[in-house]
Hints:
By secondary structure, the protein is mainly alpha-helical. It is built from four helices and two strands, in the order H-E-E-H-H-H. It has helices at residues 14-18, 37-47, 57-64, 66-83; strands at residues 21-24, 28-31. It is elongated. The N and C termini lie far apart (48 Å).
Amino acid sequence: ASSESETPAVRTGAFRNSINFVVKGYNRMEFGSGENTAKQYARVLELGSKKMKARKPLQRANENNQDTIKDIASKVLTKLNNYY
């Protein structure tokens, strides 16, 4: 179990397995995508429900890793520019 300020505890791996992404067009990426119940599971953990407060694991991970994310994105874009 986990409190609202913690990342969900790994018991079954369902949350981890529900995290995915879909690239939409040239400049949009949608995280947390999945099939039916998996998508809903990630959504409930991120946003909460009537019975559970939001855990926001994706938001916190994003906030805690901004520098790393920017660095990786910059390197990927540089490689793409050099390729084309």
